[in-house]
Amino acid sequence: MSKGIDALRKLQILAKESFAPRAARYDETAAFPKQDIEELFAAGLLGPLIPADYGGLGLGHHSGDVHSFWMMTKAIAKANMGLARCWEGHGNALLLIKHLANEKQKKKWFKGVVKNGELWSAWSGEPLAVAPHENQKFGTRLTKVEGGYRLNGSKVFCSGAPGIQWAILLVNTEGSGGARHSGSASATVLMIACKLSDPGISFDDAWWKPIGMKSSVSYKVNFEDVFLPEENVIGSPGAYLSGEWQTRFTPHYTATFLGGAEAALEHTLHYIKKQGKENDPYIQQRVAKMHINVETANLWLRKVATLWETGQVEAAKQAGNSARYLIEQLTMETVSHAIHACGARAMIQPSPLERIYRDLSFYVRHDNDDQVLAMVGRAVLSIAHDKSFFNPDAIKKINPNGTKN
After folding, report:
1. What are the backbone dihedrals phi and psi of residue 17, each rounded to the nearest 5 degrees, phi first?
2. What pLDDT, on the 0 to 100 scale, is given for residue 346?
3. 276 lies in the same domain as 346
4. Whole-angstrom Cα distance, residue 49 to residue 248?
5. Which residues constitute the domain of residue 73?
6. Is 135 helix (H, G, I), strand (E, B) or coil?
7. Is the CB of residue 59 less than 8 Å from the CB of residue 48?
8. How far apart are CA 374 and CA 272, in angstroms?
9. Cα separation, 48 vs 54, whole angstroms
10. Which letter does DSSP use for residue 101 in this model?
11. Phi and psi at residue 161, in whole multiples of 5°?
């Protein structure tokens, strides 16, 4: 626990003194936060979930301290939510390697992180429904060949794309869809580590024109006859879905939401004091609500972390999903109060609040909160439900009998 607390303190200083001052520039240029990642590596913070035996910090859901890791994410998000998304993807990949990779894979890939500063992510996104402004579907085709697989097609929302060295690709042997969007059986979903220096991989930055989270550089990535060796397959077929690994990541995303909300509260306090408005009773009410919201969100994250750390896995999964819904509502309301308290001038660039509003508004759409809430209701009613992606049509893919999860 002390190692996690020490790392958190170090990171909080780094985020405040280095990451926050650069955030506006990375947002304005929609650039990968390369210098921030380099400083994380130099500070020995790039391997939070890597076991101590491999040179990491040894944090994690099943290692007695996931709370410090989530608080590290919150501290980064408070400075720059786009950077936090790249950090999240890296942490998610490390968690999968830690629990599902074989010994040879762990030694190779953890060494690359700890010794060489290699950055990872995990990419699944292959939405098959075409939006009104799009003229083609996304998706990949995986072909079995001698010694491995050949991959063709495209993925989107590939966070960190131009700045990372490795990605765990969630791909499907029966067609497009990755993990989230596939309609086939769970056993057809594979996780394969891909080195992104392959000449058949190209990044399409023209696709990435979002309202916020610009520095997460979550590009469209094209794969043209990319060879993925069999030795890079992580875990058994279907392990990602059958193990409900997405449930470990869901509360992690809310740590980023919360970092944005805390930054909004901090900015609001500074702003209204500078304008001499702290005695306005309506502003006092809004500040009080912001404070209560942030405190409530922190308590929920602490609750979910404790459940994971004490081995209450099923309860942790359910509580994490409840936290995902609630913390979105609390953080969005907090930013709304900040805007009302500070006024229109706080929404003009380069105001941090303007950037927080754009980033948070975009990032909470990572999942549909209506579906999340309905899934929580199904859990309460003991109806079969998909804990990972909150999709009522996906349950038979994971549990063909449709029985209670």
Report:
1. -90, -25
2. 93
3. yes
4. 13
5. 2-118
6. coil
7. yes
8. 38
9. 11
10. S
11. -40, -50
Instruction: Write down how long the chain is.
Output: 405
Say how far apart CA 26 and CA 205 lie, in whole Å.
15
Cα separation values, 70 from 66, 193, 220, 359, Å: 6, 24, 27, 19
d(CA 268, CA 80): 17
pLDDT band at 185 (very low <50, low <70, confident <90, very high): low
Report helix angle 369-380 to 313-342, nearest 10.
Answer: 140
Sequence-ordered list of residues with C-beta below 8 angstroms from that of 42, at least 6 positions apart, any chain: none
How far is residue 57 from each of residues 43, 237, 265, 397, measured CA to CA in Å?
12, 29, 30, 36
Q: Determine contact, residues 86/37, Cβ cutoff 8 Å.
A: yes
d(Cα 223, Cα 151) in Å, to the nearest integer? 6
- Classify residue 134: in a domain, yes or no: no
- CATH (domain of 6): 1.10.540.10
Structurally, the chain folds into a number of domains equal to 3
Tokens 């700890």 appear where? 114
Q: In this structure, what DSSP letter does residue 109 have?
A: H
Describe the strand order of the beta sheet including 139-145 as a list of residue ranges: 139-145, 148-158, 219-229, 201-204
Over the stretch 27-41, which tens digit does the pLDDT of each residue have?
A: 999 999 999 999 999
Cα separation of 112 and 118, whole Å? Answer: 5
- Asked whether 212 and 23 are in contact (CB, 8 A), the reply is no
Average pLDDT over residues 357-381: 96
Instruction: Specify whether the CB–CB gap between 81 and 359 falls below 8 A.
Output: yes
3-state secondary structure 13-66: HHHHHHHHHHHHHHHHHCCCCHHHHHHHHHCCCCCCCCCHHHCCCCCECCCCEC
What CA–CA distance (Å, rounded) separates 323 from 159? 23
Per the CB < 8 A criterion, the answer to whether 194 and 217 are in contact is no
What tens digit of pLDDT does each residue of 137-154 get? 799 999 999 999 999 999
Closest CA to 249 of 85, 362, 361, 107: 85
Mean pLDDT of 11-30: 98
Q: What is the pTM of this model?
A: 0.95
| DSSP single-letter state for residue 130 | P
CA distances from 41 to 53, 104, 272 (A): 18, 23, 37
CATH number of the CATH domain containing 185: 2.40.110.10
Residue 400 pLDDT > 50: no
Which two three-digit tokens encode residue 156? 């989107």
